[in-house]
Amino acid sequence: MKVLKFGGTSVGTAQRIRNLAEIIPSNEPIIVVLSAMSGTTNALIAIADEAKKGNSERATDLAKELEAKYYVTSNELFFTNLYKKRGEEFINDMFSKVFQDIRRGFNGNEYNDTIASGELLSTGLFHLYLSEQKKNNAYLPALNYMKTNSDQEPDYEFIAENIERILNDYIGTKIFVTQGFICRNAQGEVDNLGRGGSDYSAAVIGNVVDAEEVQIWTDIDGIHNNDPRFVSGTAPLRELSFDEAAELAYFGAKILHPSTINPCSRKGIPVILKNTLQPSDSGTIISHHYNPSGVKAIAAKDGITAIKIRSSRMLMAHGFLKKIFQIFDEYSTSVDMITTSEVAVSLTIDNTKNLDKILEELNVFSTVEVDKEQTIICIVGDFVADRNGYAGKIFNTLKNIPIRMISYGGSNHNVSILVSSNHKIDTLRALHEVVNEHKLVKA
Question: The domain at 296-442 falls in which architecture?
């Protein structure tokens, strides 16, 4: 069995939904995981925000606007009057629930219920379209099997047991349509896996069904070796190891959700990134295979805050680092980069929700400096210490860029630097010279 996930742009219009139906195979077992149609989740969040603030009239108006767009899409999607009617009835049922929640007020879990409507809409319409096209398919409700535990991590045992039970009800069916992103939490309430969580859903499903491969379909031909929005002449990477892809995803490669790699790498399931606009392109294949060949790719992660913790008591002080990290752990704040000296520790975070409380506790025993609007630049490649001099080439290329922090040696696949976000684009462009040099040498 294969798992194929399609993002919001892949189901963004009636024509793209039709194209998607042509892409998926019908002669082998597959699970199709869909995101909400592009723009829908943002619209639903706006509706939910207005309803939560008590602005029911505004929330209703926004919901009616979104509903009207879906009626247009449904009318364009289906060919027969029978399925045009079924599509309208389905949309009416979905939005009736949204309007009902708005009228009653958001006093419970209505917020997450509303957000989940996006994936339910896209999968419901796609299921109906496949049925109209006489393609044997089954609807696989994610809320009946996708669940997180008390640590907000996927409950693999529950998911495996329930997805197997549902699949066994459809012996002989080749195509299963299900939602990405949405789930139930440990309390059984409707919840979600966070922005971009449809990739994560596909990876978890691939893990529990022991998939042959997991395909992630977007509107770009795989992971590029730099950010094409800011750098010209980028190219797709045809092959990456799980570790390399995980580094790029975590440090800013938007095409892949950071949590996607782990569920698949644990079972050696290849992840293939494909382009719905160019389905014949091979994309990027991510697997256990590792090719040690220089500097491969650059990614950038914005919204970083750097914290320098300075204390004269740190010199030779046992337990100082433990004390620092206990504070960050207490406030559930992850650290991305860290460097140390005899009298100071510098580290970065991307979640500033509890920053004031963290600083208050750190100030009790140290002097703290904070720099916001920073960017981590991640350079992925072959950085085994005794094999080559790529790190030297990188830092020579950046001789005119003010560097705030450097992380080198923690991984054989990654060198990370911290720069002010004002220098992000210049840094990406400068580093692309090293990537291009690698490409020329390889050729």
Answer: 2-Layer Sandwich (3.30)
| Residues ≥6 apart with Cβ < 8 Å to 201 | 5, 33, 142, 146, 178, 179, 180, 181, 183, 193
> How sure is the predictor about 443, in pLDDT bands with cuts at 50, 70 and 90?
very low
DSSP notation for 227-294: -TTT-TT--B-SEEEHHHHHHHHHTT-TTS-TTSHHHHHTTT--EEEEETTSTTS--EEEES-----S
Q: Which of 56-70, 288-302, 394-408 has the highest mean pLDDT?
A: 56-70
CATH topology of domain 2-218: Carbamate kinase (3.40.1160)
Amino acid at residue number 224: H
The amino acid occupying position 398 is L
Q: Is the confidence at residue 315, as pLDDT, over 60?
A: no
Long-range contacts of 127-131 (CB under 8 A, 24+ apart): 127/177, 128/78, 128/83, 128/86, 128/87, 128/90, 129/17, 129/18, 129/21, 129/77, 129/78, 129/83, 130/21, 130/175, 130/177, 131/83
What are the structure tokens assigned to 25, written together?
A: 């195979």
> What is the per-residue pLDDT across 165-174, written as a single tens digit (0 to 9) for each?
999 999 999 9
Tokens representing residue 323 in the block: 């004390």
The mean pLDDT of 256-283, rounded to a whole number, is 91
pLDDT greater than 90 at residue 386: no
| Cα 283 to Cα 209: distance, rounded to the nearest angstrom | 23
332-379 pLDDT, tens digit per residue, is 999 999 998 878 899 999 999 999 999 999 999 889 999 999 999 998
Say how far apart CA 189 and CA 206 lie, in whole Å: 24
Q: Tell me: the pLDDT tens digits for 31-63?
A: 999 999 999 999 999 999 999 999 999 999 999
Q: Within a 13 Å sphere around the CA of 271, how many CA atoms are in the beta-carbon half?
A: 37
Q: Rounded CA gap, 149 and 138, in Å?
A: 27
Give the C-alpha separation, 146 to 3, whole Å.
15
Task: Report the residue count for the chain.
Answer: 443
| Largest CA-CA distance found in the chain, in angstroms, rounded | 78
* Delimiting residues of CATH 3.40.1160.10 domain(s) in the chain: 2-218
pLDDT at 439: 52
CB 309 within 8 A of CB 364: no
Using a 10 angstrom Cβ sphere, with 0-12 exposed, 13-18 middle and 19 or more buried, the burial of residue 25 is: exposed
Q: Which residue has the tokens 């069995």?
A: 1
